[in-house]
Amino acid sequence: MGTELLRLIGAHPSLELAYASSRSLVGTPVQIAPMDFIDSDPSVVERDADVIVLALPNNASRPYIDAIERARPGALVIDLSADRRFDDAWVYGLSEHNADAIRAARRVSNPGCYATALHLALRPIIDLCALPPHCFGVSGYSGAGTSPSDKNNPEIVTGNILPYAITGHLHEREVSRHLGTSVRFAPSVGGHFRGIVLTALCELRDPVSPGDLAARYERAYASCPFVRFDADSPIDLRGVAKTNTARVGAISVDTEDPRRVGVVCSLDNLLKGAASQAVQNINLALGLGETEGLA
User: Fold this and answer.
1) Which residues are catalytic?
2) Does this model's pTM top 0.90?
């Protein structure tokens, strides 16, 4: 995520990199600017910057946030980890459904990659659901981070699918909290490097037609520059990998029981699920065009 974010900052017409810190790359050149990575001690955030992005592992942000509150309380802070997604003092950075709050925010918690796909698939119809939606997703192994494990070992994941955290996944709790209703979610890691395909199965209170369902999604995302809705087209990885755009659609309504429906969402977990969504949030919070540096 940090690598992708630096690339996007380097191409952004209104952003200039002040510094970049790293746990493992100290002293090596930053590719987008004439500087080297500096040490990632929390005191690094005391340096002069208008925007601070924390691309840290979960449970690592507290010392940095404490240092920011002491030294740079007016800075815009974007946290890409899960540490503040359950904190009401931080704005949840789901651009498509929370833009007004983000525009007024100085503390933004970026949604998780799977959580972004879950929200985009479910939000337009969650008020119609009679039961908790059941969702299944497959992510590329880049989503498993950089710490060595079976889930990001190419020798293990290539030609393979590894289910994990079948109950109680962090993103299940995250989405349930921000949707205000329970969601069931089972993830797996696939043999590709990047990209998520997520299927949501919902049982509605009342029967619905495919046209009425599609109209809800079209209204929800008509003004969203980075969500493409395709009611009938297949949704897969090829249309989203290495892009800032999520695809939602492939709507299915059970002909025997039209209360049962399915929706698919795909996105790049490193971009729309992380780095480009962070830039969307920066743009909104700074009063820039939402697509600046991304279109």
Assistant:
1) 113
2) yes
